[in-house]
Amino acid sequence: MRKIFVAILAIASIALVSCKQSPSTSKFSGRQNEVKLLTLDPGHFHAALVQMYMYNEVDPTVHVYAPKGADVEMHLDRIERYNTRAERPTSWVEHLYTGDDYLQRMIQERRGNVLVLAGNNGKKTGYVQAAVDAGINVLADKPMAIDGKSFKMLEQTLDAAAESGVMVYDIMTERSEINNELQRVLVAMPELFGEMEKGTPEEPAITKESVHHFFKYVSGEPLRRPEWYFDVKQQGEGIVDVTTHLVDLVQCTVMPEQEIDYKNDIKFTSASRWATKIPRDKYRLVTGKEDYPSFLQKDVVNDTLQVYSNGEMNYQLAGVNCRVSVIWNFMAEVGTEGTGDTHYSVVKGTKANIEIRQGAEQGYKPMLYVVDKTGDEAFEARLSAALKSLDKRYPDLSLRKVADSEYQVIIPSSIIKSHEVRFSSVMKVYLGYLAAGEIPAWERSHMKAKYYTTTKALELAK
After folding, report:
1. What is the CATH number of domain 19-170?
2. What residue spans define the domains of the chain?
3. What CATH number should be reported for the domain whose range is 175-421?
4. Distance (Å, whole) CA 42 – CA 35
5. What is the pLDDT of residues 133-164, one digit of tens each?
6. Which residue of 179, 181, 192, 425 has the lowest C-beta tally within 10 Å?
């Protein structure tokens, strides 16, 4: 029995509210409980991770609007586990409305001023637009657009939001992963990194590769995927989903806190896509369902589900050749089940390459490396000095020489954030933007650029 309070409102017929309402009059200053969360159709566990911790600015009462079903039940169960855990328990009070008119009811009642979105990506762009039209701020999980049509809708919505003072932001948790963060910091040190190379389509200056698994553990529990997650029309293909994070990291590396004009700054050379095969027994393991639903039959070949979850794109950003790729396996290999998702990244400079590796040699844990390209005997001393200069923000970094001209940056566990904890980092950034009264122009341009990049790659790959 759930201990959190859940108010189930009667399903009633409600006249459709106007698509356009006056912008929100909420003004934020960072005062206690001024942010009042709404959660809409939470079909992905990221919706709950936003509430993994309490925040002084956020009211503990949250209003949830969703269709009846397992998705919203699993969401509430996750919140309950946060409320009842032994360490740092939360105190969320969830009020639930279920009904076919959940979106209209949310807009009509206007019980909150910030909408959290993490679920069916095929519906997400429309949800963002409806919230912005109603003057409700939005914190959305990626991706906010999964094809060219939804990108155009999103672009118009972001422009409308900026004009009306509504703040839309997407949850880019990988920015605050410590290896990604330090990679950007070291790249920004010309005395160490030199200048960023331009590379070629065949040998790009930046490569980011990500490997994920449909079956994995989250917060110590086996993750149950909803059936729509395997439908690319609802979830989006892999090339527009996880790649959102990788493209975002590329942008933050090449043009940090700079506005991007995607029409002129981005040029494509190639893109491709391919399917992951999921037989019936594995589908049953991850969803708990006995058979493929009717909406997935279009993707079943020889009694095996074909999910287009893999893709690669090659493009230029501000003249820098970049390669981004994503692979989805069903689960990690035997003996590596606890590794979770893996990541490889390299940024090439004229003096050094800064790399993140996460293979068997690293025990499937991400580790940061610096590869000297100068041959200068003083390079190690410069690298040590560079790390020392970061001590105030990143304390106790150290160095280990692993090969000729190759060094590992040893990162203490005290500054490493788990995937779940990184949602708290994003939340704090967003709360800061709310208090400041706007999303920076560079952030808005980066959102447009990343979703243009992913949806254009899908168009080219198909």
Report:
1. 3.40.50.720
2. 19-170, 175-421
3. 3.30.360
4. 19
5. 999 999 999 999 999 999 999 999 999 999 99
6. 425
